[in-house]
Amino acid sequence: MNLVKINFDRCKECGYCIKFCPKGCLSKGDKINKRGYFPPVFAAENCIACGSCARMCPDTAISVYKDVE
Amino acid sequence: MKTIYEKPQVFTDAITTYCGGCGHGIVGKLIAELIDELKLQENGILVWPIGCSCLSDRYYDMDNFMALHGRAPASATGIKRADPSKFVLCYQGDGDMVSEGMAEIMHAAIRSEKFSVIFINNAIYGMTGGQMAPTTMLGQVASTAPYGRETLNSGYPVQMAELMATMPGVVYSERVTVTSPANVAKCKKALKKAFELQLEGKGLSFVEVLSPCPTGWKMAATKSLDYIDEVLTQVYPLGVKKDASKEEN
Ligand SMILES: Cc1ncc(C[n+]2csc(CCOP(=O)(O)OP(=O)(O)O)c2C)c(N)n1
Ligand code: SF4
Ligand code: SF4
Ligand code: SF4
């Protein structure tokens, strides 16, 4: 399984990670962070650990790990 | 388990002051990745401008210098000449470089200073509230051009990457953007080339980045990326404008 970790309080809800995930693994979240943004949520099922979400994130809020136990 | 992406090591935990979706954040992250990859943390000095990126010294755990408005190339000149063994990065926005400090960047190019320049072109003054810059496109609305920029009073947009390419002292000039993962990869490649040319002791290397300013443009962040691809790139074509890195210097 692959894992995308979103640092909840770094996110500024720009939506770039959602827009550029080729597998639709990221979607709008409904929990607010301490700065008033709603970070996206990740569903691991189709993730190919391509790293596109992390590379687009202007706030370095995303880390990506492949083949997590 | 394999790590595909993690926050670059040189980055501190500080959260940037940038708006959501700001291009400064993407480029700033690429700089940090390259500092890690090329091992520049110990020997590098980052020179920052006035503008939205003026608090960048908080984000990098290394030596930083805050220049006066428009004067980053002058400060970078002093630093690089005082100790040519240092890697020196000069980072500027379009208001900072093209209005406030046009003389400084031109003379750094004339003198063929041996540092790298990153030019963030968002076609507007971001920090002070979206005023017109010399890079604002014709017809583009800004707070000081409410009906759009027109030539009668405000003249024409400045193409810095092309202008720098005409300067004999500039060894490399390229315009890139950050509107997709592929374009971010190309941007990183251009920055890496510019950094490596400095490490080889070549003349000034220049990379212009077309960078989203969703706040200044009054657009959703994802729309600001489309605006670059569809509109900005028409006035500011992407690509390598000069590569004299193979020539003798
Ligand atoms: C000498 C001086 N003049 C004017 C200002 C006001 N000022 C601060 S930032 C800025 C423009 C910044 O625009 P740009 O370089 O495009 O950077 P951005 O904020 O878009 O990243 C201006 C005019 C100043 N701080 N100092
Ligand atoms: S790593 Fe790739 S597939 Fe996985 S969430 Fe990020 S963009 Fe989507
Ligand atoms: S790209 Fe980063 S800042 Fe933007 S929504 Fe995704 S996690 Fe948040
Ligand atoms: S005003 Fe524009 S350039 Fe400044 S932080 Fe916001 S989006 Fe970035």
What does this molecule look like?
The complex is a heterodimer of chains A (69) and B (249). Chain A has 69 residues and is an alpha+beta fold. Chain A has a single domain, classed as Alpha-Beta Plaits (2-Layer Sandwich), CATH 3.30.70.20. Chain A has two helices and four strands. In chain A, the strands form two sheets. Chain A has a two-stranded antiparallel ribbon. Chain A has a two-stranded antiparallel sheet with strand order 2-3. The model of chain A has no long low-confidence stretch (mean pLDDT 97). In chain B, β6, α7 and β7 form a beta-alpha-beta unit. In chain B, α1 crosses α7 and α3 crosses α4. The radius of gyration of chain B is 17 Å and the shape is globular. The chains are: A alpha+beta (69), B alpha/beta (249). At the A-B interface, α1, α2 and β4 of A face β1, α1, α7 and α8 of B. β4 of chain A pairs antiparallel with β1 of chain B. Bound molecules: thiamine diphosphate (TPP) and iron/sulfur cluster (3 copies).
What is the averaged pLDDT score of chain A?
Answer: 97
Radius of gyration of chain B: 17 Å
Pair with the most extensive interface? A-B, 30 and 31 residues
Query: Which architecture of chain B does the CATH hierarchy give at level 2?
Result: 3-Layer(aba) Sandwich
By CATH, the architecture of chain A is named 2-Layer Sandwich
Q: How do the strands of the widest beta sheet of chain A line up side by side?
A: 1-4
Secondary structure class of chain B reads: alpha/beta
> Helix/strand/pairing class of chain A, anyone?
alpha+beta
**SSE series of chain A:** EHEEHE
Measured between the Cα atoms of the first and last residue of chain A, the distance is 7 Å
CATH topology of chain B: Rossmann fold
The helix content of chain B is 25-40%
Q: How many helical elements of chain A?
A: 2
CATH topology of chain A: Alpha-Beta Plaits
The total number of structural domains of chain B is 1
